[in-house]
Structures are given as structure tokens and as C-alpha cells.
Description:
Chain A has 164 residues and is an alpha+beta fold.
Amino acid sequence: MGPPLHLVHIKILAADLLSLTVLQTSPPSFLRRGRTVTRAELVGIVVSRDRREKFLRFLIDDGTGCVPCVLWLNHQYLNANVSSELSASDPNAEMALKMSEEVCLGTLLRVRGKMVMYRGAIQISVRDVVLEKDPNVEVLHWLQCVRLAKECYDLPPPSAPGAT
Amino acid sequence: MVSAGIKPGVPVILRELEPSSEMFKQGASLRVTGILQSYDMDSATAVIKDGSVSLKIDTQNLRDVSFRTNSAYQFIGELQIHADNEAILQARIGRNVDGLDLNLYQSALLIQREQEAKLRSSRRT
Lengths: 164, 125
């Protein structure tokens, strides 16, 4: 059996992410071939964007599916009891705002974050966003997803026939 | 506005867009890639080419995309097929992809499709 997957951002294609098994625990758990996964890394094109006061919602299309992502911009509310000076200079808030500016229609992004359920569908609660300027990065991501699925993520558990 | 109803633009190679292909369907959401051959500002119609195959792109819904002939572009949108089987992609997303290794892109696409087909069939069993 491969190493535990729940501690890392697994490189994954949208179709695979959106077809994970969801266990209705609290909070929900996500399984890939019986193994718990919690975080994902996607590369795709922004095809939709909705900026609100406290969050930015966007869709990433990697050709296999569209993944809803949410980037929270509500740090000032969470820091309401911290002094206003400290709150204004919160590096997380600054970083989130900066990242939100990278999310434009048609841009190629690498998105990492936690898998969550929202209105019955899987979405990514974004930890970080990187603007990818080299279009070949997406091709590399596809191939990495295929290789990692074969060599790591989808290895059978030790009790299953064919496991080594 | 984020809409859950947006379908993924399935990547296709231009030569696959033949009337007999399962991707050649009215309203199909596709992602196409090619070299810009021409751009008509009046009709906002671009023509991209890959090898000997070309495709018309309606770009009237695109903003902030500047068109340069002989540059590589990628478009996501819906396929419109006219009565004479002439196809045009109604683009909703467009981007310049200069530097993209088209041969590598197409080879990787075939590998990725093969893997996805295997995954789908393993889920069915």
C-alpha cells in the first residue's frame, strides 16, 4: 500500500475529484479507492468568477470537469476582536486579496486547498492560488496525475488480491 | 457569476472534429487549440489552424484577448454546426498559449483520455 494520502495535496483531475466517494460524517470524509484524501491540487482554466465581499467563488475547468473553488476574504471579520491596526496588516488577509486578483477569466491557475461539501457538491476551499504563465504546465500536471494514480494513489490496499 | 451549469470544455484536436466524430455535436462544449490564421474585426471571427485543419471561432463574447496572427490560441466554448456541416465555436474563454508544445499537448491528451477511460470502466466493475 502507498503512503497515507490525507496529509498531502494530491494532484488530481477534476473528473476524479468530482467522483470521489463522500462519507456523510461530520465533517464529510472523501475516499479515493478506499483511501482517505483531504486536500487537492488542480491545474486548469478559470471559466467563471463571482467576487463577493467575504469570498471569491470561481470555477476551474481542466478539460475533464469544472471544480467549484472558494477563496475566503473574510479575515477582517474573523479578526474582529484583534486591534484594527493588527487586523489591517494581517498577512493572510493580504495574501488572500493578492491571490484573488490572480483569478481572472481565461487564466491558467494552480489551485491547492481542502475538499469540502457545499450544497451537496464537492468544492475546494482554497489555500493558495498560483498563476501559471507557461501553458506546458497543464500538460505536465495531466501526466503527473496519470503517473501518480498508477504508482501511488490507486495502489490496492495490502489485503486486496494483487497487492505487493 | 459562478454557475454550476457550466460544462467542461473537452479538449479536442482539430482533426478530430469531423462530422462522423462523437465530439462533432451541436452545442458540444469543447476546448480547441491552434495557430491563429486570420482575425476579422468586423465579425469578431478568428480562424485557427492545426496542421491542415482549420476552425472558425466566434470571439464576440471575449474581452481582453488581443489577436496576433501566427500566435497560438486556445478557446473554450460551444460548437455551432450549420446546415452544410460547417462548424464554428462560440467562444466564452480565450487565451494566448504561445510556447505550448502542441505535439506534447496532443500526446499527453491521448494518454490522459486512455487513463480516464480505464478509470471509468473500473468504476463500473
